[in-house]
Amino acid sequence: MEKEMGRRIKAYMEAAGMSQSDLAAAVGVGTTSVSNWVNGTKVPRMDKVDAMCRIFGCRRADLLDVPDHSASRLAIEIEHLTPENREIVEATISRLKAYQDALSRK
């Protein structure tokens, strides 16, 4: 996962004309962190993935090495939540979809 994600981050950086220093400054980390991500030795925290998605105009799945069955696995996990927590997850998903739709209209 780390190597593929690093390859994808590097490709997005190149497409955006960004250096590792540029990306580090944009997401609020040191250049060593970005170097580790690009080289596949470490993966960024999700808040940093989200920041990169905003910068590159992409989705998490575009950066993450997500297996095809991840959606069905997630559905199974949601199914086992308490009704109250399931409502919270569903509401969060709705807000995220609305946010993504708003971003795509810009």
Walk me through this protein's architecture.
With 106 residues, this protein is mostly helical. The chain has 2 domains: 2-63, 434 Repressor (Amino-terminal Domain) (Orthogonal Bundle); 70-105. Helix content is 75%, strand content 0%. The protein has helices at 2-16, 20-27, 31-39, 46-56, 60-63, 70-79, 83-105. Helix 2 packs across helix 3 (31-39). The chain starts with a helix and ends with a helix. 11% of the residues are buried. The mean pLDDT is 87.
State the main characteristics.
0% strand; mainly alpha; 106 residues; 7 helices; 434 Repressor (Amino-terminal Domain); 2 domains
Q: Short summary of the structure?
A:
It contains 7 helices and no strands. It has 106 residues and is mostly helical.
Q: What ranges have pLDDT less than 50 throughout 5 or more consecutive residues?
A: none
Q: Between the first and last Cα atoms, what is the distance in angstroms?
A: 31 Å
Mean pLDDT: 87
Order of helices and strands: HHHHHHH
Percent in helix: over 70%
What is the CATH architecture descriptor of the largest domain? Orthogonal Bundle
CATH superfamily of the largest domain: lambda repressor-like DNA-binding domains
- Largest sheet geometry: none
